[in-house]
Q: What sequence folds into this?
């Protein structure tokens, strides 16, 4: 047919074929996660009118058996060497397990290996994990609570909310928005040794730049040199926030090979206002590569387990050579307490938030928070499903409560 974008239709169909059934075949009876995941499935396309919603849900139902089979094949043959099964029958056996869990519990084949569901003990918990294709539930819960997404997406607004509630966060030196400097930050500092610049509404470190002061001139990693006034003119071309470069805690500087180390904390708030820690881990910088994930023992505040983000085992930092297991993390409990206080005081409209908390010599500082925080890495490093945390109980409490006015 002329004028039909078949490539776009193919991509759209492939995406639908990876999201599972729009309903649960089997639910967990062990925890409340069965009801939570069913609600997440029911929320798919809920914002669309009925005449659009039902055809999409029907297409998902028809595509998932084939989509899961194709994803299973891809995951089996693209798995890292240390996680790949060997032998034809072992491959067939694991492939059937992946596909069968996809049919019964909507487990994306990609996450089968991430959670080591080949092990029988883990496979029994498959229904209690929270999977990537169910993340829309987080947005639905925040909508019910009338949360304003700009409170967390806009870095300057986030910093201002923290300041108003007396929450320690990285200071703001300047804000550039729509070709103008915002009034409270009229001048770019001329004496700050190092500047850290990032997009005002980005995520995952988008638009980050580092500028270092040398003889009154700021220089970046690309070799550009600008005076403070010229740098300010340069930054007018983008929406960004300027903050001081922070040094990580001395106890972590050598193992991390220098960059700032952050604790990632997920918190949830009940309709009553009580805040609970859901999950947390240490994120260790790894140069230009994705960070190394570290699980921390709450009693000793020491690293108990480390993984790379693809789920493969890690033993030491590839650059510094430091081994992490047994390393004590300073201010561990203070970081968690700060995230919980911030959620309760300034961001209570959000059901769940994922916090980045910097560990400095002077204590923890809030870096940013995210409404869409991603469950996979937390479930991987803590080696347990979110169904075994307060997540399911908090989500159910919101689903059973009337929407906020």
A:
């Amino acid at each position: 047919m002329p004028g039909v974008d078949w490539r776009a239709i193919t991509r759209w169909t492939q995406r639908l074929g990876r999201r599972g059934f729009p309903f649960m075949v089997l639910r967990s009876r062990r925890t409340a996660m069965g009801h939570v995941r069913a609600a997440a499935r029911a929320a798919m396309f809920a914002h669309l009118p009925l005449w659009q919603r039902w055809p999409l849900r029907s297409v998902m139902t028809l595509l998932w058996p084939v989509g899961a089979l194709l994803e299973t094949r891809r995951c089996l043959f693209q798995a890292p060497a240390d996680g790949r099964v060997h032998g034809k029958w072992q491959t067939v056996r694991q492939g059937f397990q992946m596909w069968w869990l996809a049919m019964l519990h909507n487990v994306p084949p990609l996450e089968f290996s991430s959670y080591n569901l080949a092990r029988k003990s883990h496979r029994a918990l498959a229904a209690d994990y929270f999977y990537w294709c169910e993340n829309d539930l987080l947005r639905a819960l925040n909508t019910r609570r009338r949360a304003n997404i700009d409170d967390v997406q806009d870095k300057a607004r986030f910093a201002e909310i923290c300041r108003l509630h007396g929450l320690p966060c990285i200071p703001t030196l300047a804000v550039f928005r729509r070709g103008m400097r915002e009034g409270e930050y009229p001048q770019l500092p001329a004496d700050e040794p190092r500047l850290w610049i990032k997009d005002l509404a980005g995520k995952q470190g988008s638009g980050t730049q580092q500028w270092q002061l040398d003889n009154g001139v700021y220089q970046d990693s690309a070799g550009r040199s600008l005076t403070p006034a010229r740098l300010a003119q340069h930054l007018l071309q983008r929406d960004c926030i300027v903050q001081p470069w922070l040094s990580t805690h001395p106890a972590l500087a050598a193992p991390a090979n220098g960059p700032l180390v952050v604790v990632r904390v997920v918190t949830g708030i009940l309709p009553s206002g009580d805040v609970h820690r859901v999950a947390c881990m240490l994120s260790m910088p790894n140069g230009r590569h994705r960070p190394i994930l570290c699980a921390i023992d709450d009693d000793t505040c020491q690293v108990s387990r480390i993984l790379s983000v693809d789920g493969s085992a890690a033993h030491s930092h590839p650059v510094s050579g430091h081994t992490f297991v047994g390393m004590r993390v300073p201010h561990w409990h203070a970081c968690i307490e700060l995230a919980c206080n911030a959620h309760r005081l300034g961001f209570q409209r959000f059901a769940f938030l994922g916090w980045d908390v910097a560990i400095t010599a002077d204590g923890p500082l809030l870096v940013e928070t995210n409404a869409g925080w991603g469950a996979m890495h937390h479930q991987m490093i803590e080696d347990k499903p979110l169904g075994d945390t307060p997540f399911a109980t908090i989500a159910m409490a919101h689903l059973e409560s009337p929407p906020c006015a």
